Task: structure prediction
Amino acid sequence: MGWLLLLVVFIWLILFIRKKRSFKFSLSPTVLDIKSIKGLKKLSDNLEQSLSKGYMENVADRVSRQNKLKENEYGWRLLDLKRYFILTSLLKESPMFSEKVDELWHEMLMFTREYEDFSKKYLGATLHHNPNVNVEPDPDLRGFFDWLYAELFFIRKENVHLYKGFFRFPVHPNIIDEFKNFPENELIDKYFKSDAKSMPVVLSLISSMKKTANRVKDYDKNDIHVMMKKGKSQQNYNAMLVPFLSVSYFHYDEFFSYMKESSNSSASCTRCGSGSSESSCSSGSSCSSCGGGGD
Result:
């Protein structure tokens, strides 16, 4: 009986690995596939205008020579990197949770002068990518990142693949409560940049997140605490807080397939430096952040 069980597990592993390796990317959208958040289209256009054609052609050429990517994969990595740059313009702390997207960011950094010109034109300061070897997994930060991502962008299976799943980690109840009850100015002070150019997007985003938070049913925090102590936070806690996010924000009709892929994946995080307002970055610069959330 034991050998039969081992055989079943072995076959399952072979099929799982084959499925992972056989993932196919469809044609990437020509636009960022953004939600109807006020000011987001203008912010997206500003990003595109800040990336010179020659610079991006050089990056694409370098990537094709340095990396063996699947068909259409480069376009999806670039799309998610652009989405990340939008997040950096809005948030005090900008997590990077995709190793594959981060690899493309590294390729952009190889063109030092062009990268500096881009980040200053778009953000008004150089966006640094600082190493951090002591990254601890932070499921709360990953849950918050997934929520923000879903409020701003449509999610397709290619994005799920690049981020190794979404909503594997819950949005913490305290964060839900803050967006239910805190006024706009307090939420801005805690989470968002107050740059005049991005403020219309920030205000619209906060309004959207408040509506989402108010859809979450009341829960007993003591029950949540007990679940977390018993190690049941992953499944039960998510089931209570974020299923409405997962279902309502998908741009394709394969939610259950997504959940299966997501549950079999592990979240990861790149080694980036802190990007909060209290970071150690030099004056006149902007920093990225890594929030953990890995295995």
Q: What stands out?
A: Confidence is low (pLDDT under 50) at residues 230-244, 246-285, 289-295. The beta strands are 126-128, 285-287. DSSP finds 15 helices and two strands in the chain.
